[in-house]
Task: structure prediction
Amino acid sequence: MRSTEEMEPSPLIILDTNILWKGTETVTADLLKVIRTSGVDQVAVPWVVLEELTAQRAQPHREKYEKAEQVLQSLKADTPWPIPALPPMDLARIQDHWRQKYLDVVNVIPTSEAVLKKALVREANVLPPCKRMDDNGQKIGGRDAAIWLTAVEYAREHPDEMVYFVSENTKDFGDGTAFPYPMNMDLAGLEDRFVLLTNWYEVMEKFTQRTDDVDKDAVRSVLSDPESLGAIEAEAGRRLGLPQSGFHGPTFEGTMGFFVEDEGTLVTTEPVRALGWVEAPTAALNRVIELKAYRIGEHVWCMATVQWALGGPALLHDTFQAKGVGCLWETRVLVSPTNADAQLTVLRSQGTQALDIDLVSTLTPALAARVDFIATEPRWSRLRERKMLETLRRQRREPFIERKSPF
Result:
């Protein structure tokens, strides 16, 4: 009789591009390295994914080089003496550098010629996972199809392996419960050996060992340290900041406090909606709602649902004025109380909540000061407010109305 190990297929984790989009110097990449060397046979990406990740790094380099070359030519034309030229652009060297960076984290699965042809046919016929950008738009998704078909082909060619395909792209690949035609036909006969996971958290649940042996005070200490708070502040500024394309987009809920100026005493709070933080807010740990710990190799990693108090200058939705705003922000984060080199990573977040008056009164002094009169600091000048309003006018194509500055 065969042993359990002989009967169970060995696992292979195949990653979509979005799982490694943040680069190789991340906690996710570190965990992939640990998983790859601590029990799981392989962590891999299709060749198409490797090239997408490489292009993500190489394309900005090329664009910056071309801009620098244009500026240098303009400078040369306006300078009476010779100016050294830029070294030749070595795009292949940049590409090789980043390919190797990613290959230090994952293996690569070749994308066959047959898969590439089939992917192009699917794009031409708008067959899932390919689609149109809109009802009348261009056809897209050839690379998505190539990634999907590479994973399927690998599963068919390796009947002794269990394939876990990991992608956050649920719009095109689905959530794993059902697949549209012809993706359902791709998996015919593979249903028991091909699993779609939709986020990194599911990978952690599947391939790591849960443990209750965790020092909760140590976790809170990590969450409260300046490095972790800095990571939350930067992430809040990125996720909840003013839209790069202007003042269109979702708003977030917050609280604007009213204080007695001579005493610094909070009188009341008023719920407001903000277009976004004008700069990254200040963060303070409010409470840890849920904590799950996993052991991978020598270290413990914790998935924590954490509520933070945020405060800083935000542009109000109704008045387009920069005011000091505070809010509560709930996130799921990944931290390690045993690995000093690990950094806090935000896995996902929810919408914000307004701060009630009792909580505002108990905030740390640093955060309370941000929620107080930060909008009156010198950098929030009349000129800056006017520039923001002029930008809004251009984008909405409305007449510019002079507003009385509150500063």
